[in-house]
Amino acid sequence: MKRRHLLQAAAAATALPSVARAQAFPARPIRYVVPVSAGGGSDMIARVVTERWGKALGQTFVVDNQSGGGGVIACQTTARAPADGYTLLQAYVATHGTTPATRRVAYDAVKDFTPIGMIGATPNVLAINDSVPAKTIKEFIDHMKRNPGKLSYGSAGPGSLTHLTMELFKQETGAFMLHIPYRGIAPAITDLLGGQTQAMFPGLAAALPHLRSGRMRALAVTGTQRNPQLKDVPTMEEAGFKGFDAMQWYGSVGPAGLPADVVRRLNETQVAVLKAPDLAERLAGEAVEPWPMSPEQFGDYIRADIARWTALAKARGIRLDD
Questions:
Q1: Are 45 and 39 contacting, i.e. CB atoms less than 8 angstroms apart?
Q2: Contact present, 47 and 63 (Cβ < 8 Å)
Q3: 78 within 8 A of 128, measured Cβ to Cβ
Q4: Which end of the chain is less packed: N or C, by CB atoms within 10 Å?
Q5: Distances in Å between the alpha carbon of 294 and those of 42, 51, 120, 266?
Q6: Residue-range domains of the chain with CATH
Q7: What is the pLDDT of residues 154-213, one digit of tens each?
Q8: Residues 197, 180: Cα–Cα separation, whole Å
Q9: What is the pTM assigned to this prediction?
Q10: Contact assessment for residue 239 and residue 220, using Cβ atoms and an 8 Å cutoff
Q11: Pairing between β-strand 199-200 and β-strand 125-129 as defined by DSSP bridges
Q12: What is the average pLDDT across 246-270?
């Protein structure tokens, strides 16, 4: 009996540090690294979410904008931080999807991080200039094939989601359009509206004002279901492109090796925040829909997204550090 009691006591003592850590966490403010400058849509998402997330945790989040190197600096900062839950990163499709797929980066998007959870996502829109004589994807593909070498599309830059999504579309259709890369989404949209380019795949938030004005026409959206803000526009899958669900997504990660109990507490509180109706209303301004996931689901999503864009980049010969 004594021996059994001693073993039970030892087991309980071993579990105490984990239990105590879970109860105490977080005991001080959490640094939330955002890989973009202050003021943009991604920054807004970070501040809206962390304000509520902090209340759920009973602790403050301090947003730290680190925009250098296209997200690489922010990723390195987070990957090198202590694995204690007090430094997190707002990862997104560039840092943990398209960038690792198209160039060498000074971090491993899978091995150097612990997934916490998905925050949300917004679709991209297959948009054309209003002078292009097409009302459907089929009509646009026919127009592309009747005018080889005469059409061009803009992107926010080489290796961006807007670039790779259109290359995926070209691969699926076998049609050709010349790629015109810009330094950001705004000038790319300006030239599409002006007719210098004929098509692109902008994010929904950037496209909406021009779609509503009629100067840009939406043919389809990415994702697995129609977007509430474009209810009459079919998904790419409805238009016959199975699995064409490229999304601009945002989520939270920490350094590799975060304790499981800390990850669980962070994820449970984040999911509770994402399920609140008022959050969905706030994120609608960026056309982002909350998309809560478990850490395991989010980790699987990151790996699948990297694999998708890596395969496309290889097939299309897109390598930006060669």
A1: no
A2: yes
A3: no
A4: N
A5: 21, 21, 13, 10
A6: 28-122+248-316 (3.40.190.150), 125-230 (3.40.190.10)
A7: 999 999 999 999 999 999 999 999 999 999 999 999 999 999 999 999 999 999 999 999
A8: 8
A9: 0.91
A10: yes
A11: antiparallel
A12: 98
| Closest C-alpha among 131, 41, 42 to residue 91 | 42
Q: Give the helix/strand (H/E) hosting 247.
A: strand 247-255
Instruction: Give the list of residues 6+ apart from residue 317 with CB closer than 8 angstroms, or none.
Output: none
* Cα–Cα distance measured from residue 200 to residue 306, given in angstroms and rounded to the nearest whole number: 22
pLDDT tens digits for range 10-22: 444 454 454 545 5
- Is it the case that residue 7 has pLDDT exceeding 60? no
Are 189 and 276 in contact, with CB atoms under 8 Å apart? no
Rounded CA-CA distance 227/218 in Å is 12
Q: What letter represents residue 298's amino acid?
A: F
Distance CA 200, CA 67 (A): 25
Question: Helices in the chain by DSSP H: which ranges?
Answer: 2-24, 41-57, 72-79, 99-102, 137-146, 161-173, 185-194, 204-213, 260-274, 277-283, 295-316
Q: Are 301 and 152 in contact (CB under 8 A)?
A: no
Strands, sheet with 87-92, edge to edge from the N-terminal-most edge strand? 61-65, 30-34, 87-92, 247-255, 113-123, 289-290
Alpha carbons 192 and 201: distance in angstroms, whole number: 11
Determine the Cα–Cα distance for residues 207 and 218; give it in Å rounded to an integer: 9
